[in-house]
Amino acid sequence: MNQPASAYFIEDRHDPNETHTLSVLVQNEPGVLARVIGLFSGRGYNIESLTVSETEAQKHLSRITIVTTGTPMVIEQIKHQLDRMIPVYRVVDMTQTKRSIERELAMVKVRGQGEHRVEALRLADAFRARVIDATTESFVFEITGNTDKINQYIDLMRPLGLVEVSRTGVAAIGRGPEGM
Amino acid sequence: MSDKSHDPNQMTGAAMIVRALIDHGVTDIFGYPGGAVLPIYDEIFQQSEVQHILVRHEQGAGHAAEGYARSTGKPGVALVTSGPGATNMVTPLTDALMDSIPLVCISGQVPTHLIGNDAFQECDTVGITRPCTKHNWLVRDVNDLAKVLHEAFYVATSGRPGPVLVDVPKDVQFATGTYHPPRKSDVHRSYAPRVKGDATQIRKAVALLAHAKRPVIYSGGGVINSGPEATKMLRELVEVTGFPITSTLMGLGAYPASGKNWLGMLGMHGTYEANMTMHDCDVMLCVGARFDDRITGRVDAFSPGSKKIHIDIDPSSINKNIRVDVPIIGDCGNILGDILQVFKAEAKKPDIKAWWQQIAQWRARNSLYYRKSNEVILPQHAIQSLFEATRGRDTYITTEVGQHQMWAAQFFGFEEPHRWMTSGGLGTMGYGLPAAVGVQVAHPDSLVIDIAGDASVQMTMQEMSTAVQYELPIKIFILNNQYMGMVRQWQQLLHGNRLSHSYSEAMPDFVKLAEAYGGVGIQVHKPGDLDGAIQEMISVKRPVLFDCRVAALENCFPMIPSGKAHNEMLLPEQANDEATAKAFAGGKALV
């Protein structure tokens, strides 16, 4: 690469990207989600998935689960940048612990008739998806699982009349008796 | 319940703000009134413990508070109104965030029931300032105000210092509630910056230092932020180890420029010996600095053969730009103290005579050389003359941003911390004049000089009026070359000498301008008149605009050229047209 006329060394580093799931325990106060998201957009980090909800109402604690990609150095940066925010209690890299369970819930609407309907139901059974709404020409399936399983299910529904999908994003928790 | 009207802690939100300032030892604040802060101004009017300095533009209030903070080690406080008052604070807040300056900004906001209605002088202040503060708050209930104000001061001054903003709607300022003095429970439980260094890491660091053959200490603004103890420990460490020491722009003064181990500043316009020492060292001790791109040059060629120890209070500074071998998180004063203790107990001064001989050869290149003239004042010479004239005096220096800033860093020797106020991270032209106002407020009897450029100084010139009003005898020492010198230098070196909009065709008459403000104007053209004019400037006890006409086309060297490493510096004697063209050959992506 021809280095342009700048005082900076502009060429990008080419370390391989990794995908990590981060659990972030925060004080549930106005603007806290904006702070976290602003950090990602402001510093150019990726968000693949984001899930947030209050988890301990009395203590005003919310848990944010973020799936992000970056080089190992960038992932380290993200964790430190999150950790130094004032309302952030803890940041745990669920991917690094290798002892975590990740789940996502999706609602999948499929429209079709005849053989397609039968096939959709058969696949739903195989994936342990539940029917939560039905009309004579459609189903809404609820499916829970890791991201790969849900992607696979959606791919299978596509030729059978997939209309739309609503996904919660990834929630993660550590295995074993200890909390984060 | 007892009669609340007799409870001294029952008061309006506006009164709480003034009370909290007093409880935090604030004696001076910088601000500008407006509709949404009038209740607070009414309280300020009725007391005498907190002095308010009326600036001419909110940006000036912010930079003045920064100057105040950096010259005292105490937090600076700014008070601005909603809407434009708050948006004008964005630059100083960002500046303070980049340079880790403790700043507390209190902004007025439209009444809570109007928030979100696009009311007059409404803006989303906490939204706008979220990325440029360490933390910010919108207070919707007067009973939360005391807690938030106390937390704001704690967050601004603890850990890695930084700016905070508290946005207070006007109805909250009017409302009555309960105040309480500062207490520990005011702070988020999730905020607990680490101050003590890990003992194992400290031992690893000492082991590296003790066996170093070619060591260097690279210190930064963190040492100054940490306080006098850190400076003392740093100086003692240099003494005990005998290691060479360089510093970032922000760290100047932590180790005295007259000290025998001093290499000068490092980085893009640092000395040859500092950059070569960094490049060739085998052990680097980085204290309170952050491997900024202006320091490292090309990162993959940065000090390739060294083991790196990095002391920083902010874990996110570790391995951000440069991978280090021994990170130590905590307050650098503490950690330097621990390192010293272990070093003294278990190690002896390493023999690094050969390394010093090598450094002496680099020093002999005399990388700050410039050719003096009898006809025209060289900017480097002007700074040197200013330095000589102020030696031994109680002097504080602020700067704007550009060539003059780099020359000031190169040629003005700082012996003590807190004497040098410059916009390092953000590079804010217009910082120096209002910062000088803030420094002079904090140190009324000291000599406060803003080393300025003709372009930068016009960005916040209006604060001359503040200086005159409060009889602050700041000295604005303008190196006037009629160009935006650093822009022009880059255009010459990187953009085919096409000087696009870097020349000021209509320069004001700075002498008349000073007089118009009620200050004193001095102009000097000839090198022979310079010393006398500087003496005159120092002896005048009023604000001075000093128009120092300098060589128009002088450039700032040495310089690390495009995408090059520390050992590929361009030295002044090499900076002829051909070498420059070669060093900067390539495309046009200027950042």
From TrEMBL, chain A:
Q: Catalyses which reaction?
A: 2 pyruvate + H(+) = (2S)-2-acetolactate + CO2
List the pathway annotation.
Amino-acid biosynthesis; L-isoleucine biosynthesis; L-isoleucine from 2-oxobutanoate: step 1/4; Amino-acid biosynthesis; L-valine biosynthesis; L-valine from pyruvate: step 1/4
Name the source's superkingdom. Answer: Bacteria
Tell me which residues make up the ACT domain: 21-96
Report the protein's function: Catalyzes the conversion of 2 pyruvate molecules into acetolactate in the first common step of the biosynthetic pathway of the branched-amino acids such as leucine, isoleucine, and valine.
Q: How does it assemble?
A: Dimer of large and small chains.
Q: What is this protein called?
A: Acetolactate synthase small subunit
Which species does this protein come from? Bradyrhizobium niftali
Question: The organism's lineage?
Answer: Bacteria, Pseudomonadati, Pseudomonadota, Alphaproteobacteria, Hyphomicrobiales
